[in-house]
Amino acid sequence: MEDEQLLAALQQHPVLDLYQLFQEVGQTQSLYTLLERLSSLKEHHHLDTRLSPFKPHIEALLAQFDRTTPDSEILKSVAIQSEIQQRGHSMSRYIMASDNHRHFSPSVDLVMFGDSITEWAPWADIFREISMVNRGLAGDTTAGMLSRIDTTLNVKPKLVCFMAGINDLAQGYSVDHIYQNYIEILTTWRVQGISILVQSTLYVGCRLQGLNVQVSLLNQRLQAYCEQHEIEFLDVNKVLAPNQLLSNRYSCDDLHLNAQAYQAWSALLQPKIEVLLLKTTQSAIDLSSMT
Length: 291
Known about the structure:
Blueprint: H1 3-12, H2 18-25, H3 31-44, H4 57-62, H5 71-103, E1 110-114, H6 116-119, H7 123-126, E2 132-136, H8 142-147, H9 150-153, E3 159-162, H10 166-170, H11 175-191, E4 195-199, H12 212-228, E5 232-234, H13 237-240, H14 259-290
Parallel strand pairs: 1-2, 1-3, 3-4, 4-5
Helix pairs in contact: 1-3, 11-12
Domain SGNH hydrolase-type esterase: 113-264
Pfam family, one: Lipase_GDSL_2
Organism: Vibrio artabrorum
């Protein structure tokens, strides 16, 4: 969509339907690129159009000041309150989700474990014939996953499918740090006799592409470790990011996935899960017959 069309939308509507506008733009750019273009046009043409019906948190913060308040005081207060708001929101989700995962723990065959990329997938709709739980949690790092690995053990799964690492990299942790956490996580499951399918850390899109060199290094080390210890490794990037860059076709924000991406991912994943679950079942039968 050209800037002329975006400007017309800004001029014609006091409040934009951002969802509809993004759908009209299609998959040619990320949501963040669209927001940047709209904000730039608003400022250039001195418009007061709201970009969506939702009021940003910062508006409430700024409303408490008047023209006599020094800019330095406003900036300091906004920084403090924004941090409290962001940390409070993310941690409350983390605390409540982890608590739910510990209290509701049915025995299942499959656990999907990871961060938001795992959590936001419709796994229950995809794997309708498999007993499973989704233990993805938005914003989590490998250190956080270590602290809640009990939420995978308490459902006594036959198989865990695992993907992690991108949040660690985004927060500045090294590939070596992530790799060591991976080893501890994988070892915990192996000791319990749980089958594991490690899925490659996904590449990200243009806005975050500075992380992709480290994504490649992490995946190389993970794949080598899995081969050495006879752990299944699935390269999801070969269908979602074959050019080492996540396409707008599969994401609106260069990180999280849409339905088309999950469809492509699950088509690659489902046959692997079926084979691994069959192997674990057969192994259990063989062990039972021996005793």
